[in-house]
Amino acid sequence: MGPLNIRPGDRLIKNYYESLHQFGQLEFDHEGAVRSAFQAMLDGYGKRLEWKLVPEYPYKKVRVDGALLDTWKQRRGFWEAKDVNDDLEKEIRKKIESGYPTSNIIFQAPERAILYQRGVRKGLNENIGDPRNLVELLQEFFSYKEPEHEEWDKAVDDFSERLPEIAKRAKDLIDHERVSNKAFRDRFEEFYALCRRSINPNLSFEAVEEMLIQHLLTERIFRRVFHAEEFRTRNVIAQEIEKVISSLTSRHFSRDAFLSELDRFYKAIEHSAEEKSDYAEKQDFLNTVYGAHHARDEEERFAVQVRERTTLQRSYAAAVLHRQHEHRA
Question: What is the pLDDT along the chain (329 residues), one digit of tens a residue?
């Protein structure tokens, strides 16, 4: 997705000023009325980048008027509106002191807007009564990338390229070891029987094989993102699947070495998930990450990752929620 090319004559810009004019004629100058015009403009430009504007966005202990999220649910920018009667400088100080983000945020009133990036106030002409100043502000806002966003974009490209190959190598290894490695074959059969007893008596061999691959590729992420270090020792399915993987890898490689090509992406996921404030937000983020790589044909089907309704993910969720409940108790 290329950068935006915003111009004073854009329909979204014109609509913004026309809306302000209409509100002024109707003597509506309170925050709830005037912010809708700016929100519509941000939303329109965000859609061109496939970003979604989420109103009343919860951020740590505060609630921001809006946040723009990309297709990966990464926060790309924030926006906070004030009305004409507010002292904008004073309101900004209060918001920042209360914990508002300053990574990339517009503090906006009808005739004035102030942009903060990386905690620093940008030296722009803040009079957005002039469309040229508004365009400059929006261009800076939408083109900004945090260093971790740049790393994330590169990691996603690597992940998309390497994951299907690594997943296929894992499947080939499983097929080979089922023939040549009795210890692995016995472990796998025991695990297959456990899954049919615990999950579904009609569970197919292919589904269990895919579960094994999913666990191999994603266990690190769930363990680190949800801080569920004890998961493997407290969840029956996880205990058994770890035994199978140990027998699979013991003769040939270490797990970390096998997955080293994905290490960059793992780290990017872990770093991004650290910014998520609660379990539900982390869960939604990971669903988005894995759902984006859902397989489209037989060759790629082993790139399918853990989704919300898979048994393995529910097992992780149950373990994490149980741990959180114990901690609160």
Answer: 567 999 999 999 999 999 888 876 444 455 556 788 899 999 999 999 999 999 999 998 999 999 999 887 888 999 999 877 778 999 999 999 999 999 999 999 888 999 999 999 999 999 999 999 999 999 999 999 887 777 777 777 777 777 788 888 888 988 888 888 888 889 889 888 988 888 888 888 888 888 888 888 877 777 776 665 555 555 667 778 888 888 887 766 677 777 787 787 777 777 766 666 566 666 666 666 665 544 333 333 333 333 333 444 444 444 444 444 444 44
pTM to 2 decimal places:
0.67
Assign residue 70 the CATH number of its domain: 3.90.1570
Inside any domain, residue 4: no
Is 259 inside a domain boundary? yes
Task: Return the number of other C-beta atoms located less than 10 Å from residue 91's C-beta.
Answer: 15
Domain that holds residue 57: 11-143
Instruction: Please return the burial class of 25, using the count of CB atoms within 10 Å of its CB with bins 0-12, 13-18 and 19+.
Output: exposed
Distance (Å, rounded) from C-alpha 258 to C-alpha 77? 36
250 lies in the same domain as 192: yes
